[in-house]
Design brief:
By secondary structure, the protein is an all-beta fold. The protein is built from no helices and eleven strands. Strands 2, 4, 5, 6, 9, 10 and 11 form a seven-stranded mixed β-sheet that branches. Strands 1-3-8-7 form a four-stranded antiparallel β-sheet, with no helix packed on it. It starts with a strand and ends with a strand. The model has no long low-confidence stretch (mean pLDDT 95).
């Protein structure tokens, strides 16, 4: 599975961004899809997960109610809709496909939230 993340950018606090993660190779419907984020000097942090069917989602507490993960299995794409962004959301965001024990990673996309 190859993953391509896009949609990052610079936004003011309170603004919104929508990240996309396009999968190629084996159909992404075989996998859970994830979003993680990382800031320099810190470990990569889990942000959100959506099950292979899309029926269940799970979020980092600090993004609940502001971020929404979704997927389109026909287009092999996952999304992360981010609203009410805060400066502390600034990070490189990575998408991943797989399970709790094995993940395939895409390249990151930078999200910068200015105060």
């Amino acid at each position: 599975v190859q993953l391509q993340a896009s949609g990052g950018g610079l936004v003011q606090a309170g603004g919104s961004l929508r990240l996309s993660c396009a999968a190629s190779g084996r159909p992404s419907s075989s996998y859970n899809m994830y979003w993680f984020r990382q800031v320099p000097g810190k470990e990569r942090e889990f942000v959100a997960r959506i099950s292979a069917s899309g029926a269940s989602t799970y979020y980092l507490d600090s993004v609940k109610g502001r971020f929404s993960i979704s997927r389109d299995n026909v287009k092999n794409t996952a999304f992360l809709q981010m609203t009410t962004l805060k400066p502390e959301d600034t990070a490189v965001y990575y998408c991943a496909a797989g399970s709790s024990t094995r993940k395939y990673w895409g390249q990151g996309t930078q999200v910068t939230v200015s105060s």
